[in-house]
Amino acid sequence: MSNPIPNLGANATQIVRYNIQLPAMQDADSLEQVRAQLMDHNLIVDRLVPGEAVVTSATGSVPDWEAIKDALKRSGYPATHTTTDDE
What we know:
This is HMA domain-containing protein. This protein is α+β, with helices and mostly antiparallel strands. It has one domain (22-84). It has helices at 28-40, 65-74, and strands at 16-21, 44-49, 52-57, 81-84. The relative contact order is 0.27. The mean pLDDT is 86.
């Protein structure tokens, strides 16, 4: 009996973690506001500390960083550096 060939395109979801530097995010209120902004863009907030957010995307595509950074900037918390996190 042969095993069927899996359909690799059936579940193209990949989990990717990102590190976002947010120097203006320093107090409890700003942490709360940034968490809400990130969650509004379908990101899972893994870690949120003053000046830094670590988020996960499980959408199968790259997050819309232009829209995310624009929303953060309009809220007063511009992202200065965004990288993938290879922990």
